[in-house]
Amino acid sequence: MPGWVSFTALGPDGNVWVVSSDGAESFLTKWDADGADLATTRLGRLRTKGEFSVGPAGLATLATPSPPEPSAGAGDSSDLPTGRVAKDGYELRYGEPEGGITLWDIDADEAVYEFGPDVLASGEYPASVRQVDDGDGLALAFEDPFTGEELVRFTFEDLEAVEDDQLDAPDWPDMDMWVGWSTDGTDWGWQDARAAFNLGDVEAQVVVAVGSDYVIASVWAFTPVEASSSESRGPDGRDIIVESVEQSAESVGQRWFIARVP
């Protein structure tokens, strides 16, 4: 499974679907109940947005195009997030080294492992890193490089916190949203969500779900958020311009879309 995990979903047959990225492209890996890697499918330069559903009829998700690769000499093209996740005396540091990941021992103040971008792009876990199922979901277990003793275990929910921080950042670029569907996880169809749901220029929140023989989407549309400003006088007598953003965007309404799967 290439790179870092961005999303997981449990299928009705007990198989686990894992979305990961190698820093440039996304991949979908299917694991059986015993943790065996059954198949990996390249999704391309798309970043899943957290809405990912698996059901008897197949899979459905929402995604945004990843930022385009820079031209030669324009800098690092890595899409790997940066940030740190601390747990049980260790820190998993994304983007350290650049395009890689480091496991840091907080008490010893030293690195236990350092994985560069070449390791993440290989599609294989290093020898001392294992994917495990602890009964509450899948996790990554890091072992001592000398004794093989388990040092720390990060759940996929722990790791998703880093990506969520990047998505919530105020300078995150505004990108188009796409809706994707597949019956087997291998062959995918993609369409711009604005065209698929006839949204026009309005903002929308989309939730997808897969049933027995259909895919359903709930679409809440909203009027664009408008900025406003007001003027007040400060304690020193100077005028202060106070800018604010209207958070109570008016709802255009909710619509439901159903696509039958033959």
Key features?
8% helix; single chain; 3 helices; mainly beta; elongated; four-stranded antiparallel sheet
Describe the structure.
The chain is mainly beta and 262 residues long. It is 8% helix and 51% strand. The protein has helices spanning 117-120, 156-168, 193-196; strands at 4-10, 16-21, 26-31, 37-44, 46-55, 58-65, 83-87, 90-94, 101-105, 110-115, 129-133, 138-143, 150-155, 178-182, 189-192, 203-210, 214-222, 227-233, 239-245, 251-260. Strands 1-2-3-4 form a four-stranded antiparallel β-sheet. The protein has a four-stranded antiparallel β-sheet with strand order 5-6-14-15. Strand 9 (101-105) and strand 10 form a beta hairpin. The longest helix is centred in the middle third of the chain and has 13 residues, at 156-168. The radius of gyration is 22 Å and the shape is elongated. The two termini are 31 Å apart.
Strand content: over 45%
SSE run: EEEEEEEEEEHEEEHEEHEEEEE
Which class do the helix and strand fractions yield? Answer: mainly beta
Low-confidence stretches: 67-78, 167-175, 229-236, 238-249
- Note the gap between the termini: 31 Å
Q: Over the alpha carbons, how many angstroms does the gyration radius reach?
A: 22 Å
| Total E-strand runs | 20
What is the spatial order of strands in the main beta sheet?
1-2-3-4
Average the pLDDT over all residues and give the rounded result.
75
Share of helix, binned: under 10%
Outline: elongated
Number of helices: 3
Describe the biggest sheet?
A: 4 strands, antiparallel
